[in-house]
Amino acid sequence: MYKKNILWAGIIILMVSLNFAGVLKLGFTNWDDNLYVTENPEILQKDVRGIWDSFTVGLYTPIVSLSYILEMHFFGLKAKYFHLTQLILHVLNALLLGFLLKQWFKSEWLAFSVALLFSIHPIHIEPVVWISSRKDLLFSLFYLLAAIAYTAFIQKNSRKGYFLSLLFIVLSSLSKPTAMTFPVVMLAFIWFEKKGLKIADVLPLMPFFLVAIATGIVAIYGAAQLDLRKMPDTGYHWYEYLSLGAYTLQFYFQKTVLPWGFSAYHAYPLPGQTVPWYYITSPVFLIALAILMVYTFKKERTVFFCLLTSVILLGPTIRIYPAGYPMVAERYFYLGLFPLLCIPFHVLISRSRSFKIITVLVLGISSIVFFSINTQHLKTWKSDVLIWSNVLKQYPELYFGYMKRAEAYEKVKEVEKAFLDYKSAYALQPGDPKVLSALAIQADALGKDQDALKLYDELIRLQESPVNFYNRGNSYKKQGIWKQAIQDYSAALKLDPQLAEAWNNRGVCNIMSSDTLSAYRDFTEATNLDPNNQMYLDNLTRIKALMAP
Hints:
This protein is mostly helical. Helix content is 71%, strand content 0%.
C-alpha cells in the first residue's frame, strides 16, 4: 500500500512538472502582482506585524502576505521563487485531495484519478501561474487539511482530528474568505456518510459556523473598503440579473468538460449592451442542473453529493449583482473542480468490471489533451502584453484590457503602441478621467503637443486636480509657453501646496520669464519640502549665484 501511494504521488508530481515546466521562467505581472507583492510596502519592508491589521485589495489575507514575506526574506524579489512556491502548493493540494477522496469514497482508483486530473486540468493554469492567486492555493491547502482532519473525527471519533480541523479552517479563513463554506460542505458529507443528519452531528460544527460568520463579516467590511468601482453596475432587467447569476455556474461546469477559452479577465455585458446568447440561455442550464440534482437525490446519492459539494464551494462566487470586478474567473473554481471530476469515475467504477482498463485510457487521453492545452495557454502568460492581448482577443470592447496592455507597452518602451491602446480605451470610456489622463501623458511623450494640450483641457474640465494642472503645466513648459505653464503650476499649488515638483518647475519658468526673485522663492520652497533632492538644491544654488551682486 505504501509503495503504491508513493508511486501515485510520483506520477502526480511528474505530470505537474511536465505540464507547468515553463512557469519558473515567468515574471511578475501588472495584473495585481504590484498590489500584492512588488509595490506592497508591507511585503517589501517585511512588516510581519502590519499584515495582521490591514486589507490587501479588499481582502483580509494575512497568511498569504506572510508567505510573500517569507519568500522576500529568503530569496528577495525574484519571481522564480514565488512561482516555485505556487507549484509546490499546487502539488501538495493534489496529494491532499487524493488522501481526502480515499477517506470519502473508499476507492484508491477514484482518489488517484481525480487527484491526477485535478493537478493538470487546464482551468488551473491561472491559479498556479498567477502569483496574485496565492490565496486560492493557500486557502485550499488548509481547507483540505481541515476536511481530512474532520473526516477522521467523523469516521474514527478522533478528538485530535477535531481540534486540528478547527485550527486548519481558521488558517484557511485567514488565507481567503471562501473558507466559510467549510461547515456546509462537512454537513453534506455527514449526510452522505451516515445517510442522514442528526442534531448530534450538527452540534460539533457550531464553532466552525462561528468562524464562518466572523470570516463573512470581515469579508464584507473589506469589500466596503475596496474602490474598484464606486457603485455596482445597475440597470439590468430582471431576467438579465438571473442570466448573470446562472451563467456563473454554467461557466465552471462548461470549462470542466470543455477546457478552453481561458482568459486572465472575463468581462460581462454591461447594462445597455447586447447580452450574448450564452448568458440568455444560462437559466436553461440552471433548470437542467436543478432537475439533475432532484433526480440524483432520489436515485444516485454519490452523484448528488458531488454536485452539491461543487455548488457549495462555488457559493461565495455566484453573483447575480455585478460590482465592478469579474463575474467569473478560473481561480474561483480551483477547489470547486474536484467534486465534478469525481462523478464520471464514480459511475465508471461502480458500473463497469473493466473500470481499471477504461480509467487508464481516460487518464492517458486526458493527459495528452490537457498537456497540449496547457502548453498553448501558458504561452499567453509569458508577458503582460500577451496576457492582455489574449483578453482583448476574447473581449475586444473591454476598455480595462486596453488600459492594462497600454501599461505593459509603456513598461517595454513601446510608446506608440501604448498611445494607440490608450486611445482605444478612451473611445470605449470617454468619461473616465484616468483613461483621459493616461492618453494625454502618452500624447505628450510622443511629441503630439497640441493633441496633449486639448486632452489636458478636457481632463481639467472633468477634474480640476493638482496633478492634472501640473501635467498640463509640464506640457506648456516643454513647448516654452512660460506664462501658461506658470498659471497651471500656480493652480496646482493652490490645490496642493506640498507639490515640490510644481514649485521647482514654476521656478524654472520664472527664470525663463526673467522673474529672478519669484524663481528664488519657488526654488527655496521646493528645497524646503524636499531638502535631499539634488536638482532642487542645484537650482537654488544657481539662482543665488545669479542674484549675487
